[in-house]
Amino acid sequence: MTTVRDIDARGGQHCETTALGVLLRHQGLDLSEPMLFGLGSGLSFLYWDGKNMGFPFLGGRVKPFELTRNLAARLGLDLLVQETTSPRKAWENVAGPLNAGHPVGLQLDSYYLDYFETKVHFGGHVVAMYGYDDQHAYLVDTEQQGGAVSTSLTSLAQARAARGPMTAKHRSFTLTLAGNPPSPRSRIVAAITACADAFLNPPIANLGHRGIDKASTLVRTWLQRTDTPQRDLPQAALLMEKAGTGGALFRNLYRDFLAECGHLLDSDHLRTGHRLYTEAATLWTDVAALIRQAGESGDARHLVRASSVLGDLSRIEREAMRALSRLGSETPSAVQV
């Protein structure tokens, strides 16, 4: 059996930040999960309803692996990413670092993992791998999936080889501290303003505050959008609250990131953003509950209420991001880093 020593196998709320935490703690850098999410400029919004989709999807973060790339660039980390179409080479890319004593991050389709009880294809799932034997791979996943878990090597190979939306070609990655990394505190303003700018200036109407506006309009039609509303609407609500989002479609994580930043930065703009995202987090949980109730009861009035709350959320988050986008323009005396 090959196992990386001194692994801190804490499971977090979100898969990608959980894996990043495992890899960085092994390098001696211990950051909270909200700080990892925020420094990676992870917050976003997506309304996705493709022709081949059974039901619309509401996403609350940037696309898979973008958070990892953002975080590595912001902290000056050495990010080594490997992809291949060869299963043999894919295994070598993982076994090599593990044999040398380094945990490895993997992007895969969670559907095939033995310990996943809910079998839904999601090709953007990320785990940290810290060991293997002749039969099993030893992983760290989110707290709700069990934290330190194992899956068969066969299932791992299937998960890594899967093709479909958001999948990658056997993607594996390692993170290494390049000398003395910059203080996370010194990178907070850049992380927040980059996230705000992307949210306020989305390239298409499905993203950012424009996407929330679109969701506000279209959610009213959701009972007619499916032949099985009793299944699809509660599942959509469940994905918003429980599917590795940390609750409130990632707004709880971002709220907590801003609160942590508030202990490091003295900024009225930051306090405004934190106050508004505290309000937004509560409202997103309300939206999920209304969508669930609409599916269970078939009563469209719940969706009318959800539409109204989403309209409020578009305004609240736009106001919050406008305040946060001004962090970089404050005087040196106003922002202390």
UniProtKB/TrEMBL annotation:
Domain DUF4872: start-end pairs: 155-324
Pfam short name (any one): DUF4872
Occurrences of domain Butirosin biosynthesis protein H N-terminal (ranges): 14-142
Record protein name field: Butirosin biosynthesis protein H, N-terminal
Taxonomic lineage of the native organism: Bacteria, Bacillati, Actinomycetota, Actinomycetes, Pseudonocardiales
